[in-house]
Amino acid sequence: MSLSKLKTIFIALFISGLTIAIIVNPKEALEASLRGLDIWWKVVFPSLLPFFIVSELLIGFGIVKFIGVLLEPLMRPIFKVPGVGGFIWAMGMASGNPAGAKLTARMRQEKQLSKIQAERLVSFTSSSNPLFIFGAVAVGFFQDPALGILLAAAHYLGNICVGLTMRFYGGTDDELKAENKKSLPSFKVAFKELHSTRINDKRPLGKMLGDAVISSIQTLLMIGGFIILFSVFNKILAIIHITAIFAALISGGLALLQISTDLSIPLITGIFEITLGNQLASETTADLIDKVIIASFILAFGGLSIQAQVASILADTDIRFRPFFIARIFQGVYSAILALLLFKPLYLNLKEEQPTSFPVFTMGYNPEWFTQYWTPIVQYGPIITICSLLLYVYLYSKRHLGNRLL
């Protein structure tokens, strides 16, 4: 029997088994589904929507092209990607997953990236946003804001390490070499590119804004579906003891690394879903340094839920998913090692100091600094989500149903 047929049989059996498990455990499946929905409409949707809309407008008005030209001397020698990669990297860090993949896919569709460059870029622009790391994980789960500095440093330095690793992916880039021979760009060249991009986009401002809203909300609806699906999937795996079986298998590896085996179930859970994995890790009785190492790995790996979202976004392009997946493993390892190395200088030493002696960038040590940002998102998130969905329905019906009536 061919490999393709075996794959078909496996997928059919897997989906059938999952369906039966959901039917047999309707209460647990509903609770998991509601939990995923709660995360999506309270936090994910309201926090990502503004970034997605603004990103679409920045691309349409040519500002991304402007930034890209200016960042060419930095991004090409270091990461072997065009200057627009700097914008995508910054937006990916600010807004979180899967913004880096969405913007990379858009730049590939705009022909501003080659296939290899896009695969390099998407590999190191996938990250959690600072608000999630500091607000949800450090303050919400670990009840220790000082951990946010350590987790964020390990996470974003891990991104850089992945970028430096993936610059060797794809071999020699002749196109890149040819472009590197050009003179350094200036503001004049950058402004020329900005102006030409704006002129070439014939859409009026109203249509451009409407397209940005519709495209952003469609992407967020897809993300919400994946969050709910993997929340249910994770719960079903726990009910039928698959999670426990996998946890038993990796306990030996954790013991070999001198990490508490109590973290095996949180690790397996985090491989599927990042939020629940970090929550479970924070609730174990393991040593704090072990919890931090596992939490850093989970944050960097991103969970199969986020990776499924990225795979869905990349499916509209010729960007392959495999390099992205391999890069997530690299970043998980890098971030875990960095968390171990930085635990003393960025956590223990800072905890010994008086809070008043901390520099401005360590304001995260104070929980009140996060609650003024995190609490409003959770509190008003559902209202923002509902209003945005109503706006989406209005714009979509006006655009499509209006054209049919005419």
UniProtKB/TrEMBL annotation:
It comes from Metabacillus malikii. Keywords: Membrane, Transmembrane, Transmembrane helix. It comes from the Bacteria. Pfam families: Gate (PF07670). InterPro entries: Gate_dom, Spore_IM_YlbJ. This is Sporulation integral membrane protein YlbJ. Residues 42-140 form the Nucleoside transporter/FeoB GTPase Gate domain. The lineage of its organism: Bacteria, Bacillati, Bacillota, Bacilli, Bacillales. The chain crosses the membrane at residues 6-24, 44-67, 79-100, 121-142, 148-169, 208-230, 236-256, 293-313, 325-343, 377-396. NCBIfam families: spore_ylbJ (TIGR02871).
